[in-house]
């Protein structure tokens, strides 16, 4: 099945080097610069429109103009070699569809996440497929086995992103790490006759070792969010990037919580979601019983400190996953894709040697 999935991905995203490495559509952080660098390096970069639909059209125009003379664009003139991600609960579908419709070049993939009701994804999937003549493939991010089964039956997406609990940013408050989630999803989907849909692992993957593991667990590719925060291309402050590089031991340094949404006044996420971020003074003060109003006031004060407001002694929100401890430096996004691909290949090749000379499987 793995090679069948690879063939599907190769057909739909011909510029991509196998295994597929995607950069997550991090809301307002993943702009054309990041998405394009990832795709130019042989991955698939996603724009993080999130809930801000006003960015969609200008970013598509910007990406089209940057990619005009690119060999990966010329391979398919109707399709932009990047994807676009929506946080569905916060976007008006007809507005999104009208932008898809008027775009001269359609994004290669639309990444759908966090609808108010999972049934809404049917209208999203059908609407985008019709409006783009199927040129834009449908990726849906899910976080449980039940959700994966429900979505494949109702939407038949082109790709399912399996998001585990280690993931940075928003995700289901209750899910498991991809070490068990990916194989259980792969088995359940195969049993129900949906084994032909490629799976992409997300959550805690930071390097070639993580990619190799995800492939072994049943994925055909990997998505990274947190790792791409530590890039020149990510649109976040230097303080945020420094906090990501400095954090260690992510199981302790980060937690899933709603505190950061509360103090920043982010409302609208369905109740089953929270977000993983690096622990800081806002988190600990909340833990000690500080009122939301006071915590919010201190957060507003902290903004004035600029880059110094980040880090464990600061109060600025640093959404990031448990893998932060593996990030050592800020590095160009294209370099990360190339390095991770090379490392994954070497790791997988090395594991073959483990069984040499043993009678396992004989
Ligand atoms: C800062 C940040 C912002 C994110 N924003 C979004 C988003 O807007 N839409 C979305 O579908 N996923 C978002 N995610 C989650 C990613 O899609 C993905 O599941 C996650 O980054 C994978 O785990 P990792 O961070 O350990 O690589 C975000 C992740 C991070 C770290």
UniProtKB/TrEMBL annotation:
Write down the SUPFAM superfamilies for this protein, in alphabetical order.
Answer: Inosine monophosphate dehydrogenase (IMPDH)
Q: Does the keyword ATP-binding apply?
A: no
Q: Which UniProt keywords apply?
A: Dioxygenase, Flavoprotein, FMN, Oxidoreductase
InterPro entries named among the record's database cross-references: Aldolase_TIM (IPR013785), NMO (IPR004136)
- GO MF terms on file? dioxygenase activity; nitronate monooxygenase activity
Q: Which CDD domains match?
A: NPD_like
Q: What Gene3D superfamilies does UniProt report for this protein, alphabetically?
A: Aldolase class I (3.20.20.70)
Q: What is this protein called?
A: Related to FMN-dependent 2-nitropropane dioxygenase
């Amino acid at each position: 099945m793995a090679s069948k999935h690879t063939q599907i991905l190769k057909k739909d995203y011909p510029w991509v080097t196998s295994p597929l490495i995607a950069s997550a559509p991090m809301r307002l952080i993943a702009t054309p610069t990041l998405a394009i660098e990832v795709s130019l390096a042989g991955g698939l970069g996603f724009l993080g429109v999130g809930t801000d639909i006003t960015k969609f059209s200008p970013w598509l125009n910007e990406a089209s103009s940057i990619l005009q003379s690119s060999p990966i664009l010329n391979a398919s003139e109707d399709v932009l070699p990047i994807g676009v991600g929506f946080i569905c609960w916060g976007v008006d579908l007809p507005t999104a569809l009208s932008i898809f419709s008027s775009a001269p070049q359609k994004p290669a993939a639309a990444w759908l996440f966090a609808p108010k009701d999972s049934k809404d994804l049917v209208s999203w999937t059908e609407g985008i497929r019709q409006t783009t003549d199927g040129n834009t493939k449908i990726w849906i991010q899910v976080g449980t086995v039940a959700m994966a089964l429900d979505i494949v039956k109702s939407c038949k997406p082109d790709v399912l992103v399996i998001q585990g609990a280690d993931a940075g940013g928003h995700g289901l408050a209750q899910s498991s790490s991809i070490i068990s989630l990916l194989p259980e999803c792969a088995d359940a989907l195969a049993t129900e006759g949906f084994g032909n849909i490629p799976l992409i692992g997300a959550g805690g993957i930071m390097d070639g070792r993580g990619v190799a593991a995800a492939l072994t667990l049943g994925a055909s590719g990997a998505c990274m969010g947190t790792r791409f925060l530590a890039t020149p291309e990510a649109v976040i402050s230097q303080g945020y990037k420094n906090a990501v590089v400095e954090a260690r031991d992510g199981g302790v340094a980060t937690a899933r919580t709603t505190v950061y949404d509360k103090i920043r006044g982010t409302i609208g996420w369905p109740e089953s979601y929270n977000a993983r971020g690096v622990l800081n003074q806002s988190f600990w003060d909340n833990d000690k019983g500080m009122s939301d109003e006071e915590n919010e006031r201190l957060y507003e004060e902290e903004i004035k400190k600029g880059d110094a407001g980040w880090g464990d002694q600061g109060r600025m929100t640093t959404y990031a996953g448990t893998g932060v401890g593996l990030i050592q430096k800020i590095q160009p996004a294209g370099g990360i894709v190339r390095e991770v691909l090379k490392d994954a290949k070497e790791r997988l090749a090395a594991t073959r040697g483990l069984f040499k000379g043993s009678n396992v499987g004989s």
